[in-house]
Amino acid sequence: MTIDEKILIFFLNAVGSNVGMNAPITRPYRRIATEEGWMTPEMAAMYRTALQDGSIDDPGFRSLWGFFAGSTSERAATLYRRIQDLDDERLRDMDALGIDMQLLMLTAPGVQCFDAATGTALARSTNDTLAATVRRHPTRFAGMAAVAPQAPQEAAKEAERAVRELGLRGVVINSHTQGEYLDDPKYWDIFAAVEALGVPLYIHPNTPSPQMIEPFLPRALDAAIFGFACETGLHVLRLIVAGVFDRFPRLQLVLGHLGEGLPYWLYRIDFMHAGIVRANRSPGAKPLQRKPSDVLRQNVHYTTSGMCWEPAVMYVHGLMGADRVMYAMDYPYQVVADEVTAMDALPLSPADKAAFFAGNAQRVFGIAPGPVLTEGKP
Ligand code: 1DF
Ligand code: MN
């Protein structure tokens, strides 16, 4: 279908007509998927080269991307094809799955595995490519800006350029950068820039840092199965107890995978943090203006990437609120049509369902409201 045909169908549906051979689209809400991966062929080649010449020695990178690059499986071939496509194949998949819009982000670890100059240049060029993609398909794609924390001041500048000049909707950082965490004040210019821009910072997973990955590796637990959540949940907790949200109270984070385990720990984190502070146990755990759970409720949003499972979604929805939980698929890593239908069946009011699938993403990422374009019966 061309865009014109889709607009026609939308119009005819709106006035209640039928459209020849196309059944009307009856779904009452738009679906925006908010953690969808992409990469350029250039970046894929840079990853392959770094695997071969050893110039990236991060064990998590070598485990994850060594697996994809070394695999001759159908799944790996499909993944490489899908992740680099920003036109026909991706739009066909979205049509079949019923995804009206994808919020695209450069796949992990993005530019963070390279030296500072290479990472900074690759962030700029991929942000330009992403912005051009959004211009080609403005109702189907929105984008998050990549930055290279290896050069914090450059990263802050690129965040400003990508949001102000390119129209990208926020910034994504894939957890640790070469074993370093953003609670180190040398990175805080990035938080200052993002807070001032009024856009969210998506803390997307990375494989565990070199310091913590060893016991994950022999059982293949280092990536999406569990290692990502350990790494990324730890990272966000470090930010909270370091006082990042005392210093930047308006900073808004987005976490995938329903919060990387943290919502389940809310009560115990508060209880234990109070005791740690009272006992003056570490100079790195100072008193905070708010409880960790307040920060997790007031400064964080949660997407369902990889976790489209009713009990977990409803738990986080009840705990964090209807305005803080958003749908995500995690294309092209977890493309399961039944998960979309499972989310359609969530026991939510029509208003909460529409917020979950589109309204929250439109507000949090500043995405313009738009039509339901896809039938979504795979
Ligand atoms: C995987 C999953 C890879 C996710 C990803 O990026 C990723 C995976 C490299 O399954 O290997 O973003 N994910 O977010 O769940
Ligand atoms: Mn992801």
Topology:
Elements lengths: L2 H12 L17 E7 L2 H13 L5 H12 L3 H11 L3 H10 L3 E6 L9 H21 L4 E3 L1 E2 L5 H13 L6 E4 L13 H10 L3 E4 L22 H15 L2 H4 L5 E3 L1 H4 L5 H13 L13 H7 L1 E4 L6 H11 L4 E2 L10 H8 L5 H16 L13
Parallel strand pairs: 1-2, 2-3, 4-5, 5-6, 6-7, 7-8, 8-9
Helix pairs in contact: 6-7, 7-8
The chain binds 4-hydroxy-3-methoxy-5-nitrobenzoic acid and manganese (II) ion.
4-hydroxy-3-methoxy-5-nitrobenzoic acid (1DF) binds next to loops.
Please, could you describe this protein's structure?
With 378 residues, the chain is of the alpha/beta class. It has one domain: TIM Barrel (Alpha-Beta Barrel). Helix content is 48%, strand content 9%. It has 16 helices and nine strands. The strands form two sheets. Strands 4-5-6-7-8-9 form a six-stranded parallel β-sheet. Strands 1-2-3 form a three-stranded parallel β-sheet. Strand 8 (300-303), helix 14 (310-320) and strand 9 (325-326) form a beta-alpha-beta unit. Helix 6 (116-136) packs parallel to helix 7 (152-164) and helix 7 runs parallel beside helix 8 (188-197). The radius of gyration is 21 Å and the shape is globular. It starts with a helix and ends in a 13-residue tail after the last helix. The model is unreliable at 1-20 (pLDDT under 50). The structure holds 4-hydroxy-3-methoxy-5-nitrobenzoic acid and manganese (II) ion. Residues 37, 107-108, 205, 223-224, 256, 305-306, 330, 333 line the site of 4-hydroxy-3-methoxy-5-nitrobenzoic acid. 4-hydroxy-3-methoxy-5-nitrobenzoic acid binds at residues 37, 107-108, 205, 223-224, 256, 305-306, 330, 333.
